[in-house]
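The protein record quoted in full:

***
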Amino acid sequence: MTEPDPTSENPPATPGMPRADFITGLALIALGVGALMQSLAMPRFADLGVNPYTVPGLVPGLLGAIIAGLGGVLTLRAAGNGGWRMARAETQTPDRAERGREWRRLLITLALTVGYAGGLVGSIPFPLATGLFMLLFILLFTPDEQWKTIPLWRTLVVAVVIAGATATIVTLLFERLFLVRLP
């Protein structure tokens, strides 16, 4: 029997993750298809000569299609790792420390999202709120190994560049393409 290669680009997944990813992928497909169907039912105002890029269902439809597509990718990837087997093996039960880390990540995500949508957006300019949200998210979810192996300045620069680019692209996309006035 051979040992797994620690230098492999695809280290073994956390036990139970293929099953969780499979279920999550199916839920994302259902959510995306539902959003897409609802967006198709929205009025298009073609009789009023409205610009097709500004119809109410365009953005929800695109987001629904993207969510469904990425849910499909997640489902297929998880199925390839045995996620379609719904029985939980004894070895797949996460220990208390791992469960604690999972809950911590969930609560941080919830706090950041609520803080962004309920506190930052509308209080400060949208691009700044989005950039700050992205920067905090990247920094808080950067793997511990990366903090140990990559210089701090490099991680911070990459995080600032990604956050700034995301804020700029999202703002321009909504204001210029979809003609949505942002707070």
In short: The radius of gyration is 20 Å. The chain has two domains: 1-86, 97-183.
